[in-house]
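stuck on this chain:
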Amino acid sequence: MQAKSKNALITSRQMRALEENAEYFGVSLLQLMENAGASLAQEIASRFANDRKVVIFCGLGGNGGDGFVAARQLLAAGFKVDVVLVGKHLDINHESSLKNWEALESLQDAISLLEVSDSSALPKVEADLVIDALLGTGTKGKLKPPISQAVELINSIKAYKIAVDVPTGIDADTGEVLGVAVKANLTITFHKGKAGLMEAKKNVGELVLKEIGLPSEMEQFTGPGDVFLATKPRTATAHKGDFGRLLVIGGNEVYSGAPTLVSLGALRTGVDLVYLAAPSKVAYAISSMSPDLITVKLEGDNLSSSNIEALKPYLGLVDAVVMGPGLGLKSETTDFVKRLVDAVEKAGKPLLLDADGLKAFAKFKRQLKVPLVLTPHSGEYAILTGETLPENYKEKASAIQKTAKKLNAVILVKGKVDVICDSQKVKFNFTGNPGMTVGGTGDVLSGIVGGLMAQKVDPFEAAVAGAFVNGAAGDFVASEIGFHMVATDIVDWIPKVLDDPMSHLKVRKPSGN
């Protein structure tokens, strides 16, 4: 694994996802908060004598919790410390922050704690050092009272000002000033730099990066945080179509189950509509399986280029396309895949190719002008590239990423450890179990990824989340009935994993690999 680049940046979304994944792999938010607060205090102690008076302004979330830890650590180092909580401690909405607040409450003889729920109650402050731990990297939208007044107060104090992670009032991703922002002399940020800090140098001052115990390797593990990245909030005013439409193309006179499983998997992700296009006899059979499926009945026993015109109206309606499961490999079907890929590209829709669709694509493979996701197992990858992958998943990643770069695609290679690559990023997924060798589980995976893509999720993030969700759902099934599962069992667990991905901790294997 490569060491972390000093110039590497991380977005606020990615940082939140990484923190959730870290907890999933055994590094709790409480540990990360302790590390952040301790590193903050150590940096201050290395710069200033401990006869300085420190006032720490804290918010109700995780950034405030970092401030609480720093207060305790600075007290231990001999500093005189006051803490101003902007809000009521009863409203602290972060479990780890609350624990660290409670630790400060036991030290009230040594640390002054002031709760300010109204801007009129903000104190006059005399201090040598002022620490801004009000709001962190997730802040969006214009600041509101009393936070905005607290920021103005901090800026008015004649003291050396230190911001925790990001100056309050600066958008960590863009550098935008959210109405008003702290003007810090020093900003101490954690794990990686944030793009917004590079754009807001007048507010950031000197920038120092501190580690909090998150190795670069952990960024490459899938987890519940990746589900967070791929999940769209559903408001009460949502309408049909707001969560996407997906076109699934597959099936022949032998295989009707594969495209059905893709469609059912997609529906369980929350996509609003799935159109399943298949040869008419297959489509009628599929219609009898589930009333939830909308079938598009195409002429012929196998799909051919003559079916393209009938599909074009649907390409205009949908937000993404999944093609391949159950198609078969007859010559007319291979030609159909090539022509349909052209039509999808012309329509400007993201495309996922799996199974027979992927095998057909191998004969004419090229870069597309639309997002492309390929989901082969190792055998299909060999057909696609003519290369056999090594067994070690880290060595696999190097070979897969080269292919991803050549095709400008996201490639998800299914296996004991799923490997997901695009031209720049690599992720490893450890969910899943030997019971998932049963037929159809890969079709469900394609449905999950396709369903997320139809909801406008970034293709790489959709593939990463899909791998985690599919494997975790299979693990829940195994925990209930053992390895004697069928693919439809997995479909039924998809909503549970999407709604509460951290619950997989109950069945997760002790080791990540």
